[in-house]
Design brief:
Chain A: InterPro entries: UPP_synth-like (IPR001441), UPP_synth-like_sf (IPR036424). Chain A: Belongs to the UPP synthase family. The structure holds two protein chains of two kinds. Chain A is built from ten helices and six strands, in the order ααβααβααβαβααββα. In chain A, helix 7 links the parallel strand 3 and strand 4. By secondary structure, chain B is of the alpha/beta class. A six-stranded parallel sheet of chain B has the order 3-4-2-1-5-6, sandwiched between helices. Classes of the chains: A alpha/beta, B alpha/beta. At the A-B interface, helix 1, helix 2, helix 8 and strand 6 of A face helix 1, helix 2, helix 10, strand 6 and helix 12 of B.
């Protein structure tokens, strides 16, 4: 019966809307859609129940169902800045503040591996000014991230780092060396990374081994490919949860092979606004899903 | 509010309006606007009547389940009854597709058909009945897609991981698949109606002999069709596809290298790719793509997964890097025209945003 009721409601709405569009010109419909988007954004900002227990762990989440590896696509810095009337660089700065807060939360809640998609291999096609501001912002923020070693975080950077500016490459090597001993959380930053490129470079590694006689083509199996991917820096390359902010519903060539069984969570909030409450929502959604891996 | 359903129920209408606003170039006269909204209203009315009839036929006792299945299949299947409502419904649907075609239509839609067994459980039916109803829903969706001129459709029929389910279920599923594959070659099937070329994608060696043979028969029989393409992913996982492609690419290059080596011409094969090392990288993106099972179709524009789960489950990982992911909370047998229309409207809205972004880039 509920299907019938909802269909009748849809019909009524459609007739109403249809009647309205016949009278008003099409330009007014853009205004309608903006209003609806604003309403949905406002309703998303309703206060979340972010009650924390005595140890700082949220009460609604269950420790045994926490994901081992969380991946995040940090999207929406520039759109956030545009909405607020700020420049792009201020948007990136706000994004990095949110990034620091997020890493702190992950360490507090004992999430062992966190992957963040900072910069895609496709982003090189952006105009030079945008690239320069982004890289400058990332460099200055990396330098001020002195508290990261104190948190016990180990940092690894994956992606085609050779195409980044030399100073940034050196900073990356330094950071990786300094934080090698970190045990609390493994932070994997994807810079100039593409999922397809990752798979191709793994294949090239395998092909070279075959060519030099270390391997036969028959030995190429799934675990072997996983060992050659750039995510070999960790022993859990597949994320359990992938979060994408800013409302885009796609993976954009991030982890392709690794996200075979990853639960995806999409939110319309922009990355600078992604706070503790939003993260709790994402984790709550993850904990309520039944994961079967195709088996039942 | 179902948290899995990202798109609010009121938003589709806004997106409908926004999409048609941004994509239509010539303004329509007031009378035609009334006609279009009237046509859409009639379509919704006819679908409401169908669902109302279905719901009235649905008792909770399982003894009536064959009647329910029959009624369901009749509703979802071809409109062989010439009732006024069904003809009007067809006409209204054609109007709606005409409106949608003003904007960009995706070339390739992929479906992950999830939720058959949950649907059967909800209606107190057997699991096989759930799969049969899922097949009926699939036929109606394919019909809508091909009427809309979507050139490539891919469906995820059976994964390699599904072989781990209990053997009776796998056996009955395989039997159903074989029966439906045989049905495709028949004269009146959808394949001949729309000139569809069928490909079976996956590691077909893992299938039983009768299923594999019928699949090969269908592929041969439809090889001459050129209007559209249906890719059925059976015994398929994306990681298996990629490993297989790497395997074949390595073998091909290894054979080439061996031949050249034997006649002393090997030195031309090494190509330096500037990644800082002097690597002899002689396999590239094109070599892998050439050996993929899915080379018969371009990358999907939309990936639709029913039942509200937002994961890819090892389906088209390589190809779906830039695809729109749409996840309605309806189960697969419940999928209808409105879900397809919502997906396409979201695609159109997304496409216009991506075009703008590309212009800025």
């Amino acid at each position: 019966m509920d299907g019938l009721v909802s269909s009748l409601l849809l019909l009524l709405l459609l007739l109403l809307f249809g009647g309205v569009t016949s009278i008003w010109p099409y330009q007014s419909l853009k205004f309608w859609s903006k209003i609806l988007r604003l309403i949905s954004r406002l309703s998303n900002q309703s206060p979340n129940n972010t009650a924390l227990g005595s140890d700082g762990f949220p009460e609604q989440l269950r420790r045994e169902l926490m994901p081992r590896h969380v991946a995040v696509i940090l999207d929406g810095n520039r759109r956030w800045a545009k909405e607020k009337g700020l420049t792009f660089i201020e948007g990136y700065r706000a994004g990095f503040v949110a990034f620091r807060v997020f890493v702190g939360i992950c360490v507090q809640w004992d999430i062992p591996i966190v992957s963040l998609f900072l910069f895609s291999s496709e982003n090189w096609r952006r105009p030079q000014i945008s690239l320069r501001t982004y890289l400058h912002a990332s460099r200055s923020n990396r330098e001020t991230n002195s508290e990261i070693p104190e948190l016990g975080v180990r940092v690894s950077v994956i992606g085609d780092t050779c195409s980044l500016p030399i100073s940034l490459q050196e900073l990356i090597k330094e950071t990786e060396k300094e934080t090698e001993k970190g045990t609390k959380c493994h932070l994997i930053l994807a810079m100039s990374y593409g999922g397809q490129n990752d798979i191709v470079q793994a294949c090239q590694g395998i092909a070279t081994k075959v060519k030099h006689g270390f391997l036969e083509p028959e030995d190429i199996t799934r675990p072997l490919v996983e060992q050659e991917l750039q995510t070999r820096v960790t022993n859990v390359p597949s994320p359990d949860l992938l979060i994408r902010t800013s409302g885009e519903l796609r993976i954009s060539n991030y982890y392709l092979w690794q996200s075979a069984y990853t639960e995806m969570y999409f939110t319309t909030t922009y990355w600078p606004d992604f706070d503790r409450g939003e993260f709790i929502e994402a984790l709550l959604s993850f904990q309520q899903r039944g994961r079967h891996f195709g088996r039942n | 509010m179902d948290e899995h359903h990202w798109i609010n129920s009121t938003e589709p209408f806004a997106t409908a309006a926004a999409a048609t606003t941004t994509t239509t170039t010539k303004p329509l006269l007031p009378f035609s606007r009334l006609l279009i909204s009237g046509g859409a209203a009639v379509l919704v009315a006819s679908e409401t009547c169908r669902r109302g009839r279905l719901l009235l036929l649905c008792p909770s006792a399982s003894t009536a389940s064959p009647a329910f299945c029959e009624a369901f299949e009749m509703e979802k299947g071809k409109d062989s009854r010439n009732t006024f409502i069904s003809t009007l419904g067809n006409f209204a649907r054609k109007c709606l597709f005409g409106i949608l075609s003003v904007g960009p239509i995706p070339d390739h839609i992929a479906f992950i058909m999830d939720g058959n067994r949950r649907y059967a459980k909800r209606r107190d039916l057997e699991k096989e009945a759930g799969h049969k109803l899922g097949f009926a829903a699939l036929m109606s969706i394919l019909r809508y897609c091909y009427e809309l001129n979507v050139k490539y459709v891919t469906i995820y029929a059976f994964s390699i991981d599904n072989f781990k389910r209990c053997p009776e279920e796998v056996k009955s599923l395989m039997e159903l698949i074989r029966e439906k594959i045989e049905g495709l070659i028949r004269e009146e099937s959808i394949v001949n109606q729309y000139g569809i070329r069928v490909h079976f994608i996956g590691d077909l060696e893992l299938l039983d002999e009768p299923v594999r043979l019928s699949a090969e028969r269908v592929m041969a029989a439809t090889a001459g069709n050129t209007r559209s393409v249906l890719s059925v992913c059976i015994a398929y996982t994306s990681t298996n596809e990629i490993v297989n492609a790497v395997h074949l690419a390595c073998e091909e290059k290894w054979d080439e290298f061996r031949i050249l080596d034997s006649c002393g011409g090997a030195y031309g094969l090494t190509r330096y790719v500037g990644n800082g090392e002097n690597g002899e990288n002689f396999i590239g993106l094109e070599d892998i793509e050439r050996h993929m099972y899915m080379k018969v179709a371009p990358a999907p524009d939309i990936v639709i997964r029913t039942s509200g789960e937002t994961r890819l489950s090892n389906f088209l990982l390589w190809q779906s890097g830039h695809s729109l992911l749409y996840s309605p909370s309806a189960l697969w047998p419940e999928i209808g025209l409105r879900h397809l229309v919502c997906a396409i409207l979201n695609f159109q809205r997304d496409r216009s945003y991506m075009e703008k972004k590309k212009k800025i880039l």
